[in-house]
Design a protein that fits this description.
Helix content: 55-70%
Number of strands: 0
Order of helices and strands: HHHHHH
Radius of gyration: 23 Å
Length: 140
């Protein structure tokens, strides 16, 4: 056995400072509904960034890589939108979307727009007229 005394460490950036451990352990966490509102706000921002991508990268002769990236991102945003509107309807009093200036109708409208854009870029059954109508609505 070694003559050195082994120290118990709590790990962490400062080598186990016990005060750091306690301040991190007892830091108040946001409620699940606050987190939900934050995720919905981030989702709206991501949706707007996707529309900017559509306008710049997909408007004229998009590459296969850009179309593939768009398809994946758009599908994920649609899925979250469907989940978020359902969750917000079922927990209306707890979610309190009005705290971030939103309503369930806003989530549903954004999800419809995402679906329309998905069809426009990835479904060959949409006519040119329908595609132009969606573009005019998305980019007035």
């Amino acid at each position: 056995m070694s003559n050195s005394i082994e120290k118990t460490r709590f790990d962490g950036p400062r080598g186990g400072n016990i005060l750091e451990f306690y301040s991190r352990e007892f830091k108040p966490e946001p409620s699940p509904f606050e987190m939900f509102r934050q995720h919905v706000s981030q989702w709206f921002f991501a949706s707007r960034m996707l529309r900017a991508f559509e306008a710049t990268a997909l408007a004229h002769k998009p590459s296969e890589q850009d179309l593939s990236s768009h398809q994946i991102a758009c599908a994920a945003l649609i899925t979250f939108g469907a989940f978020a509107s359902s969750f917000a309807k079922n927990h209306k009093d707890e979610v309190e979307l009005e705290k971030v200036g939103l309503k369930v109708d806003d989530i549903e409208a954004e999800t419809r727009l995402l679906r329309d854009n998905f069809k426009m870029f990835h479904d060959d059954t949409m006519s040119q007229e329908e595609a132009e109508k969606v573009l005019k609505e998305a980019f007035p």
